[in-house]
Amino acid sequence: MSLHSMRIALILLCVTVFSNCGYHPGAGPLSPTAFGTVAVPIFVNESSEPNIQTVITRAVIREFNRAGVLVVEKPRADKILEGRIVGYSNGSVSRTAASTVSEYRLSVIVQLTLKNREGKILFRHPSAQLREEYFASSILEQNEQAEAKALKSGAVDFAEDVVRHLLDQVNEGLSNENL
After folding, report:
1. Separation of alpha carbons 72 and 94, rounded Å
2. What is the reported pTM?
């Protein structure tokens, strides 16, 4: 086989392999550019647990940024995601043979509303849930640290779910006005 024939065969092989690999140039599975810009004001905290709104709001903002969505101030935003923390609970989920708590579960309920810049509601979830479990300690300070760490971890998972859902709505072909 001549060198020219080998080159042609190699080119044909590459074309065949890469045309069937499933790669398609474009925005990928999530389409942040179709979503537009978003403002995420600090969530309102109506629960009895202080300062959790900051942890959750920051996680949502970080996730929008990670997904490639530009987070801006309200006046410049195409959309506004508002959150209202309406519930917080922290209870035991398992005990040792001696009846001491070995594991806790914290749960946060958040009402989410996505609006366009004119105030029209595009999406509403009345009871989005953040849940995270953590191991108990007999030392109060360690318990408090574990609870704070669980809240941060749960907030990251919560934010990923929320942002993924909102971006998926765009990818399902819904216009920005029908999210």
Report:
1. 43
2. 0.77
